[in-house]
Here is the input.
Amino acid sequence: MKCSLLITLLLLLPAVCSAQLYAMRDSVPDSYNFWLYVPKCTTPTPEPTPAPEPTPEPTAKRPTPLTADEAIALSRTWRFDEIAKYRDSMATKPQPLPCPTVEHRGLPIVVFLHGRSLCGTDLYRVRRYGTLDALTMGCKVDAVVIAPQNRGDSWWKPERVMRIVDWVAERHDVDTTRLYVLGMSLGGYGAIDFAAAYPDRTAAAIGLCGGASGNDLDGLTELPLWIMHGTADRDVPVSASRRVRDAVVKADTTNLMRYEELQGVGHSLLARVFYLHETYDWLFKHSTTDSPRTVNRDIEISINRLNNAYKGLKQRSVALDVRDPQGNRAVSSSNEKTSGAEWHTIKEGDTLGHIAIRYNTTVKRLCALNGISEKSILRLGKKLRVR
Here is the structure.
C-alpha cells in the first residue's frame, strides 16, 4: 500500500520548487551565525481527473482506493505510514502484490566556508562571493547550503561547523551521507581541517588556495579531496597546499586526492570555482556509502573555464526569498540597501585604486563602504558602492 500510494502521488502531484534563504543568528549554541539555503517544494492543485470506470466487486474485500483529491489532502497532513494504517483499519487486505521499491533520498548538504575578507559580524558580507552569490546569479545547486560566518578571531573550528550541520539535519529532509564542504583561502584551510576531522561523515571536500591549520592530516586519506592552488598566489603561498599534498601522499594508500597547481594563477581567480556547475557535479559524484570510496577524475576545471565562469550566469539571475528564523521576510543590512548611495559596476581591468580616482575618493573609503579589504576580489558585473 505504501509503495502504490507513493507512486500515485509522485505521478499525480508534480512539484513546483522555490527557494528560501534564512539568516540564522544565535540559533546553534557554541557555533557560528550562518545562512541556510533551502530549496522548498510545494504541491499545486492538479487538474480534475475523470471518474474511473466501474469495476466488478472483487472476491476479497480490498481497501477503498484513494481518489486524487483524497491523496492530496492526506499527503499534506499525514505520513505514508499513517495513511497505510488508516487504510488497514478500514478493510482486510489480501496478500500484497509485489511492487517496485521507491527509494527516498533527501537533499545533499553543501557547506561553504569563506575567506578572511568576509569575516566579521555582518552576515550579509558572506553573500558577496561564493556559493550563495552563485545561486543568485543562476548557478543551479540542488542542495541545502550552509554558509557560516567566521568572526575573524581564529581559524575555522570543525566542531562548530558540524554542530550547524547536525542542527540542520534534525530539522530538514537531508541526506547526511552526501555532506560536502568547500572553501577558499581561510575557508580553504577550514574545508581541509573539517575533512580531516570528519572523514567518515564528509562525502567529498574542495580546498582552494588554502592549507591546514594543524598537523593531524591522516583523515584526509579516507575521503575524496580536491586541492587547487595558483602558483602566483601572493596571499596564501602555494607551499601551504604542498604541505597538505605531501602529508597525504606519504600516508595515502587509496589515492583519493586530486591535487592541481595552476601555473601563473593568483589568488582571486580561483573564487570562480564556486560559480561553475562542474564544481557541484564533482561533489555530488561522491557519497560516504560508496564502497570502496573512490575519487572522480573525469570532471575537469581548466584555467580557460575559470576565465569564462560568469558567462551566461547573469541572464539566469534570481532573487532569493530572504527570511529570518521564524519565516518572516528579513530586512537587508545597511550594506545591502542604502538610499542615496552611488554604485559602480565593476568592469574588466578595474582596480580599487582606479575606481577611487574616478570617483574622487580613497581605497580606504571604498573598503569601509563595502566591507572589503584592499585584497578583496573584484568580480566583473558586481556593484561596488562608491558614495
The radius of gyration is 25 Å.
